[in-house]
Amino acid sequence: MKFKLYAFLIAAFSAILMAAFGHVFAAMLLLLLAGACLYPTPSHRLNAGPTLSVPEILQDVLQAFRLETPELFGSDGFGTDFSSQTAVLGDKITAHIDILPANANYDPTPGVGFYSGVQNVETIIADVPVTLNLFKHVPVRVKWLTQLSSKLPLYKRAISNIGYVLGKTVVDAALAQVVTGSSNRTVINPANVSLDSMEQIRSQLNTQKALNRPRWGLATTGFAGQLQNDDRVKSNLFYAMLNGDEGFRVFRNLSGFRTVREYPDLSLVGNNVSAVFADPRFVVVATRKPDFSNAAAQLGCPEVMRFFPMSDPESGIQAVGVMWQEPGTGDVIVSVGILFGISVGNQGGANGSITDNAGVVVTTQ
Predict the structure, then answer these.
(1) Widest CA span of the chain, in angstroms?
(2) Domain boundaries, the chain
């Protein structure tokens, strides 16, 4: 803008000088040039406000997937192995599960010292076989891509819902294997669920030599509701777990469990399952970067779809973005797909094998 102003001043001053010496026609041309200097430069882009690109939308979905699924990404949830290595559907891998070690007090007793509370390395790193046999995606139609940014509240809610559905798909796939993957059971009458029930479950996991921390739990609405009714749970003198602003009940730091979450669809697992309690080794979710080949490019065919790898830098989750334009309507279809596998407990093998003893299933009978 400063350059245009300087050019205008020079052209105007030159026009005045030429007019003074009788060069009127030349002075008029210079005045026209001066005016052009201040005229705004035409833009070659349609200025329709901020826009959202398809990669941005897909990345937002991936981020929402992480935020909406605490069972997968919290320190008090499933064990995870999110690697950037590539794989294809059906590959068998060995997932490496990192477990947080517990701290210990220094013992000044001769011969003890730093040996106090020492843990074997195999208790904080577990190798679990996992088959990458699941590929799930959530496709959505975008009709007016350039106008999404003007409806940010609606857009954010839609993205959050997509991430939630994708995450819940993975969690439900894991819970579907709980019955066949665990040999450890405890029967608790739903009407008698209380803080004493939690202490019973804590003791059973201790007997099975589950990790000291962190431990987690998922419970049906019936189980969580009865637990909430225990005066010791909701009283400020004890645990003060009121859950006043949360639709799904969440109990924190209760009877040795970092979190116990209400998960209504746990009842769909079957076999009268009302709750699952475990340390992170019991359920393991592994993902890998999908190794896909562009068959159209290899065969010299016109490409009507785009595939590109995606990753969430914070969690390390790997995914693939897909997009294409629908002929005729011009609508854009976008989707995020995840290649993953799940290991639960003994994976249907012998009692006590693999990570069987890291969890216990509560049944109603």
Answers:
(1) 110
(2) 2-38, 50-99+118-365
Cis peptide bond N-terminal to 214, omega within 30: yes
pLDDT (mean) for 115-141: 69
3-state secondary structure at position 346: coil
Residue 287 has phi, psi (to 5 degrees) of -125, 155
The pairing of beta strand 332-344 with beta strand 134-142: antiparallel
In three-state secondary structure terms, 325 is: strand
- In which element (H, E) is residue 55 found? helix 54-67
Task: Give the pLDDT score at 207.
Answer: 93
Residue 86: pLDDT band with limits 50, 70, 90: confident
- Please name every residue paired with 302 in a beta bridge, in sequence order, or none if there are none: none
First-to-last C-alpha distance (Å) of the chain = 80
Answer whether residue 314 shows pLDDT above 90. no
Residue 213 CA from chain centroid, whole number: 22
